[in-house]
Design a protein that fits this description.
The chain is mainly alpha-helical.
Length: 258
Amino acid sequence: MTGVPASAAGGSTGAQGARGAAAADGAASEVSGTAARSSAPAPGPEGGVRPARGGKLTAAAVNQASVWNVANLLTMLRLLLVPGFVMLMLADGGYDPAWRSFAWAAFAVAMITDLFDGHLARTYDLVTDFGKIADPIADKAIMGAALVCLSALGDLPWWVTAVILGRELGITLLRFLVIRYGVIPASRGGKLKTLTQGIAVGMYVLALTGWLATMRFWVMAAAVVLTVVTGLDYVRQAVVLRRRGIAERAAALGEKEA
């Protein structure tokens, strides 16, 4: 019987061992590659990377936590002051100077927080969807409550309340109608209107007599004039913004068809 040389047998055994080691390495590489692919973020549409589920939950938690920032807390405080102001305003028949002073203090705090919450939100990047909705509601709630109380007590003509509240609600609705075309920025006239309204209403909340009572009449008259003038200006801006938006959409559609 022909024998196989020891060197050849050793070489064959070594080759088989090498092939086995290579196969084991390949299997290990395949397993590690599969694990890497499973841990890597899945590709999203158009070659983008789809965020991991944990990332979505974390982002949602951060956004939810950001609602409880100092700007939104001031807005919430202003909302809570509305029923308190009404109770103070109407306490003891609504004509007690002491209760009216307390009501004025609540109104003043609400107006001051209105000045600070928006500034803080813009300065420190605390703008949230809640703030965008709650802030204008709080502004109109405290002002509307004061105007209605004053008119109900006979201190302020109802037509003044109707003009101011009608303008505020109308401009708010107008902003929503044209928001698809852009945002109407707050003007200096609008800010002056808000300041004048706050001063005038605050003076009417206080039980003033003499020349101060006469002065508050003229301050309220200036507030009404600014309310009407700035309201008409917002309407003009809305019309211009809508026309511009329609023209830009028509131009973009024409370029797309061409």
